[in-house]
Each structure stands twice: as structure tokens, then as C-alpha cells.
Specification:
homotetramer; L-fuculose-1-phosphate Aldolase; 2 domains; two-stranded antiparallel ribbon; 32% helix; globular; disordered N terminus; EC 4.2.1.109 (chains A, B, C, D); amino-acid biosynthesis (chains A, B, C, D); zinc ion binding (chains A, B, C, D); lyase (chains A, B, C, D)
Chain lengths: 270, 270, 270, 270
């Protein structure tokens, strides 16, 4: 869109916004570096919008700055905003493990926020669960119709599963290490492996999903994603690009699974 | 498209058009401000074209300048033009409640209009109904195939309904306030709420839909949209972004509903 | 794509191509004018590629310069090239009614053509039929899957038809004028009108379709399009934008018709 | 995406990367020439990502520099990277027929590679098979869902076939020349020809597909593609553009075949 093009000379900001942010001298932003987490959240939310994974104000991505000076720093988008129109200065920043608030977009000058009062994304406790329980580097939440349709076509099941599809090889082979107590990546899944993704039931409030998401994460040490019935999916990875790749591979498999199911082809090969 | 890129330095206008409009000193345009209603109509119609919500010359969006000096001013696109190629100077401007014509694109110099005689969009009386009866800030009309397919799959029904899908939470909870006589937004819909959208029958002339649209708006105080059988949908909201978000959420639900219906999954959970 | 962006400063040409074409002083090109037929063919073929209407080297558009000094001049793309990568200097130009060749891309310097020997599109006699028999201003040919699927789902029929869908109103109401012998546009189709598009059988050679296309055009004076079984569709209009709008409206209706047929909903309302 | 736009002034590189690559004085790169194989791989992988043919890190394209000084030079993308974000300096370069390594991205300065250790794409032996056995100029591998679905809908068959669809004419007519022992292109397929594409069974390791791919290539001298069950497709052509056109035409036919099969329409006309 033309107005997007107009703002491209300063990343995701207009010239005026750029000047305002520069004056802030905000250590949690770096408008000129497209690989900075605050900028990547903006870029990826636009991509996810084009792919129909986030729509309305639903869905999004949180990134932990795993390659930065302080890898405990987490960037979170605000709640209730159009994710494809996010600006880097709208991010919340918290520090793990206490989730201490280091930066709020509400501290920005009014010329930037237009007096809007931001709240962190309702997904925050769910993203935090992935950081805390799995040491994730980024976590994606989508309302993908493929995810919702699989949760409906497997309505009476607590697990979605598929095997013998090449794209499964894009997913990590995870193992619970008894000595460290951590889930560790020990390789990639194989073509003939059965990918199992737990499905949890949706709750009226997004934050109320936290308990069942954490349970599923613990009960399924091999998974890098959790489906939420009639809602969508959470996918995480070691860093932002791994999370993106896992989400793309899983959505591909969910899309294929819907087609297979409707054509009466079993998704798990006997 | 390249020619779009060529014109991006002055928003939606070529350099020559920009100069011509500047000379006009037209108080109803502001080419440099991408958030101005006349520019947003152009931007959003392009987006809606990419999303296949407007095609041919059908569909569009009208915006009331709720944050401007005069919130009674309404921007309307012309009829019979390709909506994804609209220019800001092609807009009609009227003032509520009398719908007094303040600006016509036919007053532009011929170098801009190329002698084309513009008429306001045929949707105008329908957009006006949303402004007058619901104090809407913007109103979207699409020929979305999901809307048409739902109206066909629910052919014998005067209502479309769906429940227990997360995306429903993007929609407003509306209540008729007995003391003020106005419909007011009192929050957001819940996951388990049943979204009900009335379906009215299509008429040969678009303006003849006005009566039944107004009836539906009055009969369904909780709705922020009306489906038109074998035609499309009207969606409105408190401002342009809310209308956009509501339209995206509803179209997502209509798309999902078609898939559910064809897979024999009830859209309303028992 | 980035390489497309690189060439955008001179329309659809790189800087080097632009210089080479300028030196040509070719009266049939006007690189700086995005509305020139040679540029519009490039722009629209890119759009049609994105919409999946042209793919591989199939499909395309021819434009008659109805608003130029000589409205008998017709621009035709070459055969066997990727239509989304066309350059304006690759066009053939012929003059009606004799179809006299006024310009061939093979006359360009080798630095432009890279010694490639161009032939006019195999659709040329079909495009010419629309110009000659209907005084069309532009003619579009696509391999749209919606067109092919309709020709398959209506396999035993020589006509596709649909009624009572709003989008039908985007199509022209055509009447054979007995006194002039011409087919004339007398308005727009109505919502309740039945749109009938003839389906002709495909032939091994594209040019061999000419006779049956001409027959269909004569037998169906009300149509602005002809479907070709297992092949695609030809759509024409008074000028390039009308042809584009008609093609969009018809493809929308064909897409909807496939969905309706598969859901056992009759496309013509009783 | 905005960050893509930011880097467009130097092709697919940021200004800093451009400077670093320039200093390299690397004879296998030519950042300013968009038609150079290293740049075309980047451009086409982005296109294939948008078309959903490559996703996650799967799929890609290899190009042999058939029009360069040394037509035995082959460009190969690295394994395990997001193909739509490839940079030209990340390519491996090998020389046929010994597949001698001429260039490795691992020789780039660390500021470019960020210490990442690249490996050639796991498809390399399969691409090489097409170069060696068919003298291909480029080879495309996709995980297209249409390819996977056809391999599932034809689960008990070792061949996919379709006839009497116009798009078949985009594919080459190949004949085994007894005297030279080579497969040669002798024209284009005809509308009524039956396109037959062999389907080989998938293997746990991509390189283990080599034997069965080579067998299929030898057994089916008329084919320019091989389907891999539950995996995707390999398509090659005389040069990069022919490979792209063949891939587009075949994917179009596979997409149509899925629709025909699900609608109980035979893909081969009796």
C-alpha cells in the first residue's frame, strides 16, 4: 500500500515518528536495524497478515532477544491493535524470569501514541509459558483457519497427528533430558515419524488458557506447538526464524491434513 | 504494480495530479496525510481488492471524519469506478444529517477528471443509514464470496449464526440503551456468544435495499453487519479501523462457516 | 520482487533499456505514460499473473488505442513469453481493418531483444475477431481455473448460465441493433437477468478456434465473453478498463458457480 | 515488507553487505545484474514462497549458467535456510561434470555469514541428476500441496496422467534420439496428448531419492518432471525460464487434477 511505502525510508516509521523516537534515545529500539526484535515483530506481523494467519487484531508474535546483550529481554506487542500496522515503538519490553516491565509504549510522547493506552497482548502469559518452560526464543500465535479446522475435524480427539509427509522433517526432534530436566533439540524429525500436536480446549479468557497450555507443554515434551480448539495455535522455537519455520511447516501440514481428511485419506499411515 | 509505485511519492497521485490538486487548495483533501479519510479510502480499497472483497467496480468503503474538526463530514467514493484505482480527489463529501453536498469531484479541473461525470456510490443511502441509525464512523460494503456463499447455504434462513469460535471476540457487544434510545458498545463479544447476522433479500436496485437494511438494523440492535442474499455484506464500526477489524473478523467467520457447513459441522455449538 | 523494483524508475524498463528505446524514437511507445497501451499490457499481465489468470506463457491481453489519435491501432503481446515479464518494446502493433503490421519487436536493436525472434501471440486472430465483430477496445484471454472447471462441470452443455447474483450487474446489457447491424451497449445487466456465456470446444491449434469463436459471437449477440472448453475464456469490452472489469466480474461468477455446483445449489434460480 | 524495500537499492543485499561483497571481488557474483544466476535464485525463491511452493526451508531452485562463459557452472542454494530470504553471496558454485566445488559461502567474511556454516542443499544430487542425464539448464524442487495431493489421490499408481487441457501445450515434447543417446526437445506437447509424470516413493533421506529419480528419468524419456510421493516434485528445463514455465504449467495441471478428481471428472479423456 502506498502509505506503507511512504514510511519505508525509516523502517516502519514515518519521518515525524522517526524524529520523535530518536529524541527518546530509547535503548530498547533500533529503528535502523531491520533484524532488531522490535522491527522484526512489525515485519513478521505484516507477513502473517498477508498469509491470513493474523486477522482483525488477533494473533501475533513475541521475540526474546536471544542474540542481544541481555537474552532475558522479551518484546511483546500490545493488545487490541491491528498487528499488520504495528510500529516498533508500540512494543512492551519485559525481563525474564520475573517479567519485570522495562519499557511501556505508554511512556512514549503523546504525538506517537495519540493518547492511546496500551496493554500488553492477552497472549502474554502464554508466550511467557513457552519462554519459561521451554527456553523458547520466540513464540507465534495464529488464528489460522487450518488450525481451527483441524481442531474441528478432530473434535473428539485431544491430539492431532500426521505422518509420512516430507514437510515433517522441518520440525525439531525434541527429547526430555532426565539429567538437566530440560527439553532439548537433538535433531530433526524424520519423514516416517508421527508428528503429534496436543489440542487443548478453548477458554473464555485467553489468559485462562495458561494452565492447560503449560500442562500440555509438560505432558508432550516432544511438541513445539499446541493447538487450541476453535481458536488457533501456539508455536515456538529456539529463535525467531526457527519459530517462523516451524509455524510455516505446521500450518502446511494442517492445511494438507484438512484436505486429506475431507478426501478420506488417513493422516497417519498404517 | 510499477505504475502504482511511480505515483507513490505523492500518495495516491501522480506528480501532475498532485500539482493540479494543490492549486485547487481544496480543504477537503490533504494529500500528504496518509490518515486523511480521502487517502484511507484509496488505501483500503486497494487492500480490499487484494483480499478479493471488492472486484470489478463493486464494493467499497465510506468514512466519516470522526476525529476531524467537523465529525459530521462523510467521504464517499464515486459509483462505477474501479475501487482499487481510486484517487483522493475523486471523493464526494457530504455533511450529516442533511447529507448536504460539500464537495463533488465533478468540480475538479478537466485535466483531473478527464471529463468523466461522477455519481456518488449507489451504496450511499445504505452507508447513510449506518451513520444515521448507528452513529457509525465508517461503513464497508463487500461482495465477498464467503458472504454470498453463506447467504446461499443458509438460503431458507433470515439469519446467519455461529458460536464458540475465538474470532467472535473481535466483535463488539452492543446494547440498546433504553434511556438514550441509542445502541451503545458495552464491551466485546465472548467466545461462547452466538453471533447473529441478519440476512436481507437482494433487490434489483441497490438503493432499494435501504428500507430492509434499516429494518434489520432496528430489529437487530446487537449486530454490526447485515448480509444481503446473493449480493454481499455491509459492516460498520465506530471508526474506520474498527469497521475494518469487524469486517475482517466477520469475513473470517463466514469463510470458516462455509467450510464447517460443507464438512457437516454445525456452526452453532449445542 | 527486488529486480522489478529496480526497474520501476523508468516504468517497466531498466535504465539501459530505457536509453536504448529512447534512441529508437519509436512513435508506438511512450515509456513515461503509464496509461499508454504498451505499458498497460505489461501492468495488467503482471496483475493477471498474480491473480493466477495467466501462468506459464499462456493468456494475455490486447489493447486497441481507442483514445489515441488513430483508434485503429492495436497492441499485441508476443507469443511464448512469460506475460508477467513483458516489456513495452516487445509489442507488435497492427492497424485495423487490414491488420497491417506497423511495428515489430524484431526491429528493436539486439541489445534489447537478445536476438530472440518474436512472433505475435497465437491469440491474435481471436483478438482480431473481437475487434472486427464487436468493435472491442481490448480483449483478455485467461486460462482461469474457474473457467476450465465450469467448462468441465457443464461438460455436456454448450452454454454456461447463472442468475440472481449481484455481480451480474457489472456486465453490459448488449443488443443487436437491426438498423446499424452492430451490437450496442444499452445499459447494464440486472440482478435477476440470466447471464449466458457460450462454450466452444477447444481445438489443437489456438488459431483454429477462430471460426467457432466468431460463430459464437454472432450467435450470442448479448455476450461479452466466450468460454473455451478445457482451455479458458475470452472476454472483451469497449476499452481496456471495461474489459478488465468484465473479466473480473465473470471470473468472480465462474468461481462462485463452481462452489454452488459442488454444493448442489442451482446457478440459475427457478 | 519494508525491510525488503530497504535493501532493494543494491539488489538483494543491504548497503553494508554490498560493500563487503564488492571487496571480495568474487567472480561468481554480479550483484548489479538481476539476470545473474545467483540473483535469479534469490528472486525466484521469493516468488515461489509467495506462491506457496517453498515454505519453511523446503524446496528451491538450482541454475546452470547456460548463457555464461562456462556453461558447466552450477549455482546451488544452501540447505536449511529460509529460501525466500536467500542472499546471492550464500550460493555454492560447482563445475560439471566432476561437481568440483568452485565457491563456498563459508569463504565469505564472518560479517556476512555471521559464522553460520553452510552446507549445499540436500537436493544437490537430485539437481545434478537432471543436469547430467538431461543436460538441464535449471532444476526446481517444490513441496507444492497440489503435487502432494496428486501423489495421495493416485496413491496406488506409479504415474500421474492428464490429457485434453490447453495448459499441457506449455510442456515440451521430448524424444529419445537413438543416434545421439540424448533426450531432445522436438516441439511442444499437443492439447490432446497425455501428459504422464512418474511418481517415485519418498525415502527418509533426500539424497537416497537419487537412484529412483535417475531410474524414472531414464524410464520416462518424455518427462520433464518427477513427482515424489508425499513429498513434492522435481521439474527441470533447458534454462531457468523454461524450468519456471514448465513448473507453473505442471502445478496448474496438478491443481486442476485435484479439483477434477474430487468432482469425479476423469483427468484422462476417454
Amino acid at each position: 500500500m502506498t502509505s506503507d511505502k511512504q514510511i519505508s525510508s525509516h523502517g516502519f516509521c514515518t519521518h515525524a515518528e522517526f524524529q520523535a523516537v530518536k529524541v527518546l534515545n530509547d535503548g530498547f529500539l533500533s529503528l535502523d536495524d531491520p533484524t532488531h526484535p522490535a522491527n522484526l515483530i512489525c515485519e513478521l506481523c505484516r507477513l502473517f497478515y498477508e498469509k491470513d494467519w493474523v486477522t482483525g487484531t488477533g494473533g501475533g508474535i513475541s521475540i526474546r532477544d536471544v542474540k542481544g546483550k541481555n537474552p532475558n529481554i522479551v518484546y511483546i506487542a500490545p493488545s487490541g491493535v491491528q498487528k499488520e500496522r504495528l510500529k516498533p515503538y508500540e512494543m512492551f519490553v519485559v525481563e525474564l524470569p520475573e517479567e519485570k516491565l522495562l519499557r511501556s509504549p505508554n511512556d512514549c510522547p503523546e504525538e506517537l501514541t495519540k493518547k492511546y493506552k496500551y496493554k500488553p497482548s492477552a497472549c502474554t502469559p502464554l508466550f511467557m509459558s513457552c519462554y519459561q518452560l521451554r527456553d523458547a526464543g520466540a513464540c507465534i500465535h495464529t488464528h489460522s483457519q487450518n488450525a481451527v479446522m483441524c481442531s474441528l475435524l478432530w473434535e473428539d480427539k485431544a491430539e492431532f497427528s500426521i505422518s509420512h509427509i516430507e514437510q515433517i522433517k522441518a520440525l525439531p526432534l525434541l527429547k526430555h533430558n532426565q539429567s538437566t530436566g530440560h527439553v532439548e533439540k537433538v535433531g530433526s524429525m524424520q519423514f516416517f515419524d508421527k508428528l503429534v500436536i496436543p489440542i487443548i480446549e478453548n477458554t473464555p479468557q485467553e489468559e485462562d488458557l495458561t494452565d492447560s497450555l503449560q500442562e500440555a507443554i509438560k505432558k508432550y515434551p516432544n511438541t513445539t506447538a499446541v493447538l487450541v480448539r476453535r481458536h488457533g495455535i501456539y508455536v515456538w522455537g529456539e529463535d525467531v526464524w526457527k519459530a517462523k519455520v516451524y509455524n510455516e511447516a505446521i500450518d502446511y501440514l494442517l492445511e494438507l491434513a484438512v484436505k486429506m481428511r475431507l478426501a478420506n485419506i488417513p493422516t497417519v499411515k498404517a
